[in-house]
Amino acid sequence: MAALVAGANAALTVENPGLDHVVVGMGWDTIPSNGPQAELVPFVVMCDGDGKAVSNDHLVFFNQLVSADSSVTFIGDGDQEQIDVQLKLVPEDVSKIIFLAYVDPELRGHGSFASVRSAHIRVATDENRELVRFNVSVLKLESVTAMIFGELYRHRTDWKFRALGQGYSTGLAGVAKDYGISL
Q: How do residues 58-82 score in pLDDT, each as one tens digit?
């Protein structure tokens, strides 16, 4: 297992020949509160070569658990949110898959990532062998309301993972604008 820092990447399929299926896990701990608190929601965007969402059918979240092509599936939560990615089924026009979480303002009021004390994203095999992990920095996140944890992306015919930790103060609306998503 490799621990990554923000901006680092790891070659998944080159280092693991035959790898055609991964489970991406995202997890976090928050400080309990009776007031505004981060109620984080996982969200996946499948992007084309221009870095935009292929379509709104290429999103995976609580209201759309499976991508239109069935290559990406939200498989639930336990200790962490988990997304199943069948790499061989991902259409050729998808160049990267973004994994993020946003604060749902409708559940507990306007919150931010300030109450998040630890966060991570991991990529594992379907047998739960962890390939890479990125512990997201949770310092100075008072204004962050959405965060891209990382991305799977194509490099020629192979798949890699990049650790990001990119925060947005504009929430899901900011992410939607950057990736061309209709909300």
A: 999 988 999 999 999 998 766 689 9
How high is the mean pLDDT of the chain? Answer: 90
Alpha-carbon distance values, 90 to 38, 43, 46, 58, 157 (Å): 32, 17, 9, 10, 12
Q: Report the run of H or E that residue 33 belongs to, with start and end.
A: none
Q: State the CATH number of the domain containing residue 19.
A: 2.60.60.30
End-to-end Cα separation, the chain, in angstroms: 37
Distances in whole angstroms, Cα of residue 21 to Cα of each of 16, 112, 132, 172: 11, 33, 14, 28
Q: Is the pTM value of this prediction over 0.90?
A: yes
Q: Based on the structure, what is the number of domains in the chain?
A: 1
Q: Determine the Cα–Cα distance for residues 90 and 71; give it in Å rounded to an integer.
A: 5
User: Quick one: which of 84, 79, 96, 75 has its CA closest to 21?
Assistant: 84
